[in-house]
Amino acid sequence: MSAGPRWLPTAAAPIGAVAAFACAVAGLLASRPDVVVLGLPLALWVLWATRRPAAPSGSRLRYATRVADATATTTFTATQPQPRSADAVQVAIELPDRRVRDVVLPAAGGMFHAHSRLLHSGPAQLAGVTTRVVASDGAAISEPDRRIDVGWDAAPNSRALDTLPLPLRLTGLHGSHQGTRAGQGGDFRDIHPFAPGDELRRVDWRTTARLSRRPDDLYVRRMLTLSDMSVVIVMDTTANLGEAVASWGTTAPDVSGVTSLDLTREAARSIAEAAIAAGDRVALHELSVGGRAMRAGAGPRHLARIVGVLAALAERDAPIDPTRLPPVLQGALVCVLSPFFDGAAVRAALAWRACGRTVLAVDTLPTPDQARLSTEQRIAARILLDEREDAFADLTRAGVGVVRWAEGADATATAVLRASRRRP
Amino acid sequence: MSARHGVRVPGSIPGWLVHVAVVVAAGVGAAAVSGAGWWPLVAIGLAMAGACTRVLGLAAFTVAPLLVGALLSEPSMIRTSLLVFSVHAVVVLATVSAWIPLHSLVVPAALLPTAARFGWMQGAGQLVALVAGLLEPAARAGTPLFAIVGGCSIAVLALGVGWVWSRALADRATPPTRSSAGGAGASVGGQT
User: Fold this and answer.
1) Which residue of A1, A47, A104 to mutate against B (max B Cβ within 10 Å)?
2) Which residues from chain A sit within 8 angstroms of residue B46, using beta carbons?
3) pLDDT tens digits for B38-91?
């Protein structure tokens, strides 16, 4: 059990006492009562400053964050609960750019706003706040309270996608996609002899009159079934590469431009929204150790959960063990979202394709900006990008559809996905 | 909002105003002892150095040249009144400015308790200064009235000290209380 904050004395009272004493001694030695009087207010102040105030009760900090126009504004309210033993509350706010701003508020309560422009989606650190209370004009200052970190998970944008590629096999008997099996809701499939289980209203009497050879021969019209689709979104979160190649390998969110994780979150949300709007089921997996996973689900509440998970999606350290890939439903459309810089995403996509899944590789690397690179760096970047092209060639040969999400800046993402709307 | 990150405090003043106030207070005292050679300039210089460096001792040391200036000047009621104000203000403002950084934002209401205390202590000091100024000629003439009034002043001061001491004892007897909702670092609300 901690003892709580306590007062830390400063040098103010001793310095004031020395000044008052000096005035008194100098005035007495010089026989100058007007000089002695100079020390009287100081003596009173020292007496006040050396009195022991009640134990500091810390400060109560409330905050709420709202986001508008890509700017997160956090409103803080600091008060000192009763009984108040302090004059003021001093707040130190560490901003995301490491600058520290100090704010002095009255102990009775005060408010301030911290604002940050959000450059990226995902988790963002808005402010780190530390408070302490001040009494006796600063002659007593409490120990700092525990630091409070305020963060915000910025949801990604989304692009409207009309259609998604269909997998080879559709599962389920309810949905909006026309499958190849006999069922209900779809187009005409064929004429088939009546079998136990067929509905009598499906009997095609004209065909029966034309084809039946015996009185008990009946023919039914069979329709194609409407099925739903399962979409599994697999995200590679082990790399976060910005469009500025010079920023690769550094943590400089201000100069990196749009990053691969930004595009990964955006693509995942767009695909999830399109799938759920079509009545399909969506599952989510992170292709990294300790990554989050969401079971397949449908409906707006599931979409809201997905958006929440995507907003909290952060870069992770280690890629997943290739032998422990996330489970993927049979007949599901697997969308692998990655900048495809390391082999983990490529191996996973090839493994799922080898198991017969329909796999779509979504390249989330932003269009690289190779400005301000040295010759050696330019050569290294070219080698890396060429290796990526080799990986894409391998994926295409294996029957994996490849989509470059960044190209949506020129052509709409709908057109990009429609180009790959085929069953590989 | 041109800066990417920032803090806004409604109705606040910049913290450097408190530091400027130290220099202004020293300037008042320096003006009062303007005829005392270089000592007024030394006082202003020390106050400026203390304001810039936020070293409490440096700013409070401004009192020393003011004191020397007062000793070198002829006593007068106005000079004594200004010096009582200046010396007190320099020490208090130096203490306040020691914990308020130059670039901080200060809500003026946070300094109201300090201003109130300064007011009543200054009132007491000015009252005694007025009495001392009135009795200065009598004191030089050797009239025992000065000793009587001086003794009464000390008695009043002793009573004041006793009152403050009794309050301090009462505070010491009061057990420290901490409400559960107001614990250190209590974090309520917000959204992450």
Assistant:
1) A104
2) none
3) 889 999 999 999 888 877 777 778 889 999 999 998 888 899 999 999 999 999
**How far is it, in rounded angstroms, from Cα A22 to Cα B67?**
9
Tokens 């609960």 belong to A81
- Which of B7, B191, B2, B5 lies closest to A117, judged by CA? B5
Give the count of beta carbons closer than 10 Å to the beta carbon of residue A95.
20
Q: How far are the Cα atoms of A31, B66, B71 from residue A28, in angstroms, in the given order?
A: 5, 16, 11
| Helix B77-99 / helix A12-29 crossing angle, nearest 10 deg | 160
Does the pLDDT of residue B175 top 60, yes or no?
A: no
Q: Could you say which of A44, A60, A104 has the minimum Cβ distance to residue B186? A: A60
In chain B, whose CA is at the least distance from the CA of A9?
B95
Check if A76 contacts B (Cβ < 8 Å): no
Q: Which region, left, alpha or beta, applies to residue A88 given φ > 0 means left and ψ of -120 to 50 means alpha?
A: beta
Better-predicted residue by pLDDT, A182 or B146: A182
Contact B55, B94 (CB under 8 A): no
The pair of structure tokens assigned to A239 is: 């790399």
Q: Which of A23, A33, A153 comes nearest B132 by C-beta?
A: A33
Here the tokens at position A319 are: 């890629």
Contact residues on chain B for A11, CB-CB shorter than 8 A: 56-57
* Distance from C-alpha of B47 to C-alpha of B65, rounded to nearest angstrom: 11
* Phi/psi of residue A192, nearest 5 degrees: -140, 140
What is the C-alpha to C-alpha distance for residues B175 and B156, in angstroms, rounded to an integer?
31
**Strand A88-94 with A100-106, pairing:** antiparallel
Of A320-324, A411-415, B152-156, which has the strongest mean pLDDT? A320-324
Distance (Å, whole) CA A191 – CA A382: 59
- Please give the Cα distance from A64 to A75 (Å, whole number): 5
CB A317 within 8 A of CB A289: yes
Contacts of B124 in chain A (CB under 8 A): 40-41, 44
Query: Is the ipTM beyond the 0.90 threshold?
Result: no
Per-residue CA distances from B68 to A15, A17, A28, A44, A116 (Å): 17, 18, 14, 22, 52
Written as one letter, the residue type at B131 is V
Phi, psi torsion values for B151, nearest 5 degrees: -65, -40
Contacts (Cβ under 8 Å, ≥6 apart) of B162:
none
In chain B, DSSP finds a helix count (H) and a strand count (E) of 7, 4
Task: Supply φ then ψ for residue B96, to 5 degrees.
Answer: -70, -45
How far off is chain A from B79, nearest CA to CA, in Å?
A: 9
Q: How far apart, in whole angstroms, are the C-alpha atoms of residue B19 and residue A422?
A: 72
**Angstrom distance (rounded) from CA A330 to CA A404:** 25
End-to-end CA distance of chain A: 63
